[in-house]
Amino acid sequence: MDDDDDSQYHYLRYHRDLGYSKNTPISCRHFQRPPPPKPHRQSTWFELPPGWTHWQPAIVRCPQVTVPPKWDVYNDYGRKSNELMVRDGLGTHQVEADMMWYIKGVTGIGNHVPKIHKVFSNRNSKYVFIIMDYINGDDLYALWPSATDKEKEKVAKQVDQLIRSMQTHTGTFLGPLGFSRPQVFVHPDFPPLVPMDRINYETHLDLLVTAVNAMVELGQPNYTRIRVDKLVLANMHLDPSSFIRDKKGKLWVVGWGKSGFFAPATEIAMCHYLMPARFNQIVSRLLRSWKDRRDEMTMLMAIAKWLDRHYARDRKKNDAWEASRKK
Hints:
Blueprint: E1 52-54, E2 77-78, E3 84-87, H1 94-103, E4 116-122, E5 128-133, E6 137-139, H2 140-143, H3 149-166, E7 170-171, H4 198-215, E8 231-234, E9 243-246, E10 251-253, E11 260-262, H5 264-274, H6 280-289, H7 294-326
Antiparallel strand pairs: 1-4, 2-3, 3-5, 4-5, 6-9, 7-8, 8-11, 9-10
Helix pairs in contact: 3-6, 5-7
């Protein structure tokens, strides 16, 4: 309920100053509604800029942000040790806050996701700002050069366990919560239906498989079809920057903007696709754990490469069109 909303203030009371005698029947007395009380505002330590509104659900009470964030659209993770952090930028969407809010209550993975304190958006630009706990640690890009082989194997095992925990949680429909459109394995010529269940998702992937098979030269074998026996919780963008190891060795997962419920093989395929070659310990561990899905993951990686080339070509066309307009 909004701070100024007093719609639940519903009751009538007898006004004692009207001077009715004790013998006056109740049916003859006049009742009036008392003036509504002033809205009670909870303590809000973080003051929002003018013209900014809360996104619901949101926690009103928030610890003070002592270092003001830069209110522009080019920040990604603004961090300050032992304080909160702000997640903003062009790649930040409301669905990321939705999923993080939801995942926080999922057993096995919820305590590896930063806690959200407040989410709000600019009324005009629609950019979303997420204020969450700051995780004091290093991502895998910073950790890997100085890590020993034993430490790398330990991290690979943690990544494997986190993904396994995520895949024990299933959903009914494809993509993020609230019947939002998925952001991964989507081609503009084959827009997914909303909502889309497991069977329809398998049909959608078959369309992408057929499109990629049509690009294969004659004489080469066609790729495998993808089976979708269930839809599981997935991040769908697990690269080295998605994992942060804190000072106690605990691994945290950040960046949930493309998450939702997808086929089990899609998470492993995207992680394999996004991980550079020097993180082979992680990739090898995942491929061993999901070896029965290796053909499907090969197919999904081929789809990812095909989609990346398609979107890169479209970006070049758009840039050329914008340049021609400025002339």
